Amino acid sequence: MAFYDNARPQATGSIFRAVANFVADIRAGREAALTRRALEKLTDRELADIGLLRSDLTDLSVRDLYRI
After folding, report:
1. Handedness of CA 52, 55, 30, 26 (dihedral sign)
2. Contact status, residue 57 vs residue 40, Cβ threshold 8 Å
3. What gap in Å lies between CA 3 and CA 33, rounded to an integer?
4. C-alpha dist (Å) from residue 30 to 16, 40, 43, 48
5. Which pLDDT value is given to residue 48?
6. Residue 12: is its pLDDT beyond 90?
7. With CB atoms counted within 10 Å of each terminal CB, which end of the chain scores lower, N or C?
């Protein structure tokens, strides 16, 4: 009787996860940049309606950079 082992080596799985995490971080960064651009187009009044100040947008961008 023949035995076939189709399990992947551990190194391949960890490399795949690292690449997948890297791609996910890039996508999250792009989404955050799109959100920031959309918020920057709002007036001060519109930002106040959603509970933000113009200075909060700077804080958001710094937090996003350190998150990645």
Report:
1. negative
2. yes
3. 51
4. 21, 15, 23, 25
5. 93
6. no
7. N
Cα 8 to Cα 2, 14, 18, 40: the distances in Å are 19, 10, 16, 47
Rounded CA-CA distance 48/63 in Å is 20
Structure tokens at 29: 């960064």
Listed residue (38, 19, 15, 37) closest to 27, CA to CA: 19
Q: Rounded CA gap, 14 and 20, in Å?
A: 10
Location of structure tokens 């909060």: 56
